[in-house]
Amino acid sequence: PFWLKSHARSHLAFGLACARAYAMVLQPLTASELQQLRESYDLVELGVDFPPHHGLQGRHLFVDLRKSSRQVTDRTHHFDVVVVTDLHALAAHELWHRRTKLLWAQPAEGITGALQQVSVLDREGHPGGLRFVTISFRHKFLTVTVDFYVVQVEPHLFEVEVVKEYRHHLAPFPDESDPEYDNFCQEYLPLHVKLNRTIAETPKAVGTVRMTEILDGVAYKCLRQGADRLV
User: Fold this and answer.
1) Within 31-148, where are the H helices?
2) Distance between CA atoms of 13 and 209, rounded to whole angstroms?
3) pLDDT tens, 94-106?
């Protein structure tokens, strides 16, 4: 859960000092409230229909699924890409890739993240509101959909918490009799622990992201590269 109180997050003293300056008293969502919020925009926890490649070869983009459009017919599969510009989402995206050491940053689809939703949660004591952000990430073997809480504690400082993670394997593991079994094990087993290591509910779940880090981090570089190619 996400609290900004004087007795919590001693390792984030600077961010908390800013939060206290804003006199915030933020309460976490209950499990039922969290589920209701996710259901309100029909977000599927498992089996996320991840977008196809955006078409810019050699580039990796953070895609905004709320604004991008996708048309699939018997003959064509067209995807109009809109990259993410929401600062709260960019902060969440940046923290995730920082904590996972870019493990999810370069899938074959060329998408470092697919933004599903940004919702404003009305919390007493904070006029700016707390953002509930949901982003899906993909690796060769599985996808993970992550819920974040994001709050802007200063004009150029965000505090982010990884709240919940939903993993989904893209294909069943091959049977030992499968000719590809050994190759699969050699490729997957070294990554198994990293891919399934959760960030939520650990000391790494919460972190601060400065505006300069957004402008010079994974999120910005992806956005800038995509913009350069689209102009």
Assistant:
1) 31-40, 87-99
2) 14
3) 999 999 999 998 8
Give yes or no for a contact between 87 and 217, defined as CB atoms under 8 angstroms apart: no
Q: Do 86 and 118 touch, CB atoms closer than 8 A? A: yes
CA distance 140 to 126: 40
Q: Which of 162, 163, 166, 175 is nearest to 43 (CA)?
A: 166
pTM of the model: 0.73
Cα(163)–Cα(156) distance, rounded to whole angstroms?
22
Q: Which two structure tokens, joined as six digits, stand for 54?
A: 């955006």
Instruction: Single out the residue of 134, 148, 143 nearest to residue 50, CA to CA.
Output: 143
Measured in whole angstroms, how far is the alpha carbon of residue 48 from the centre of its chain?
13
The side-by-side arrangement of strands in the sheet containing 142-154 is: 61-64, 111-121, 130-138, 142-154, 157-169, 206-210
Work out the burial of residue 59: count CB atoms within 10 Å of its CB; fewer than 13 is exposed, 13-18 middle, 19 or more buried. Answer: middle
